[in-house]
């Protein structure tokens, strides 16, 4: 635990003891912790309010407890402190098996992946595998704001997609509502990090300002750290 987290954990415990940080709901508890740690949180509206929980441990452990019913991604700074949390969805408690993540035998495996820069953005080389195993390499722009991996429609047939394994839909973007075709990639490989059954959205080529977006349907499988100094990202499977 970093020195910052240790100090904040002590302060939070003291505040709770003194009654200063009494929270009347789970969402209020979450807001207090992210405010105390100066964490940016995205999609807080997905959190359903409920009674407050009894919390203990480090701020990181408390956040995981509060968000145990949600899928989320944590972004860390170079000091190892949480910088941003992106809540992607509410967990499904049914018999649907979770998407598989292929990782090294070690539970603490992490993958440092070189990136190229486009302004403040990071691009990575990805190997995409279509529904029938057709492979294609593409440069992908890392976009934590994209719900799924996004590709130009011109790549549908190259990856082996047809009307039988695509579903039409719509997506709300910064430029308005756009038509999409949704499907699943058999796998996505970035460096040595791999995830299977990855949701993908195809949109018209002229609506996409890059060769593709690496969104949360892949990134959400990993704890992700940006290392701007070394032009790399570090992915650690959950």
From TrEMBL:
The keyword Ribonucleoprotein does not apply. It comes from the Bacteria. InterPro entries: Clan_AA_Asp_peptidase_C, Peptidase_aspartic_dom_sf, Retropepsin-like_bacterial. Its EC number is 3.4.23.-. CDD domains: retropepsin_like_bacteria (cd05483). Residues 1-23 form the signal peptide. One of its GO terms (molecular function) is peptidase activity. GO terms for biological process: proteolysis. The keyword Signal applies. Keywords: Hydrolase, Protease, Signal. NCBIfam families: clan_AA_DTGA (TIGR02281). This is TIGR02281 family clan AA aspartic protease. It comes from Methylotuvimicrobium buryatense.
